[in-house]
Amino acid sequence: MPVGPVRGRLIAFEGIDGCGKSTQAALAAASFGAALTFEPGGTPLGAALRPLALGTAQVDPVARAEALLMMADRAQHVADVIEPALATGRWVVTDRFGASTLAYQGHGRGLDLGILELLNRWATAGVAPDLNVLIDLPVVDALARRHQRVADGFESLDTEFHQRVAAGFRSQAASDPEHWLVVDGRSGPDEVAAAVAAGVAERLGAPGQLGDDR
C-alpha cells in the first residue's frame, strides 16, 4: 500500500519585540532547510491586514478588533502557506504564531485567554506548533535594541505593556514545557542560534528523521 510523505514539523519563534526572534527564525530555517514565514503578513491577505493589525494604517482598532485581525491573518496563513508545506513533509519555521496572540492581546491587552485560545484553535483548524521557541530577553534590553528602528504600534506602547507580554510568554512556556524551548536571548546571535539548534535537535530530531507521532 503506498505511503504518503511524512508530515513536516512546525516551529514557531516567539518573544517580545526586539528579542531577536526574527533573526533566529531565519537562521533556523536556513539551517533546517525549512520554509520560512511570518505573522502578520505572510500571505497577500495578511499583507493587507498587517498595517491594520499593527496600528500603522492611521486606524486604531479596539483590542477585540485587533485580535480578530490577527486571527484572520492566521487562518489564511495556515490555509495558504503552513498546512500545504507540512502536508508535503516540509518543515516550516514561522516568526510568530498563536502564542503571540495570547501574549499580546491576552496578557498585554487583557482580553479573555480562554476565548482567545478557542478562536485560535478555530482559525488554525487545529494546526499547532510541534515546538515553540521563546527567545527570552529582559524588556529593558529589548527596548535598547528597538531604539535603533522605527517603532510600530505595539513597539511604541509603554514598558508596563511589554512586561505583561513578556510574562505572558513565560507563563505559556512554563505551563507546557513539552512544546516550548526557552533560550536566553542575551547572548550573541551565533550563541543563541547554537542553543536553538541543539534544543530543536533534542526535541524533534532532524528534518525528515521523525514523522508526526502526535
Tell me what you see in this structure.
The protein is α/β, with parallel strands linked by helices. The protein contains eight helices and five strands; from the N terminus they run E-H-E-H-H-E-H-H-E-H-H-E-H. The protein has helices at 21-32, 44-53, 63-87, 98-108, 113-123, 139-146, 159-175, 189-204, and strands at 10-14, 35-38, 92-95, 131-136, 180-184. A five-stranded parallel beta sheet has the order 2-3-1-4-5, sandwiched between helices. Helix 4 (98-108) crosses helix 7. The protein is globular, with a radius of gyration of 17 Å. Residues 210-214 have low confidence and may be disordered.
Q: Assign an overall shape.
A: globular
Q: What are the low-pLDDT stretches, counting only 5+ consecutive residues below 50?
A: 210-214
Give me the side-by-side strand order of the main sheet. Answer: 2-3-1-4-5
Quick one: biggest sheet?
5 strands, parallel
Mean pLDDT: 91
Report the β-strand fraction as a percent range: 5-15%
Distance between the termini: 22 Å
Task: Give the helix/strand class.
Answer: alpha/beta
What string gives the helices and strands in order?
EHEHHEHHEHHEH
Please bin the fraction of helical residues.
Answer: 40-55%
Based on DSSP secondary structure assignment, what is the total number of beta strands? 5
Q: From the alpha-carbon coordinates, what is the Rg to the nearest angstrom? A: 17 Å
Report the total helices: 8
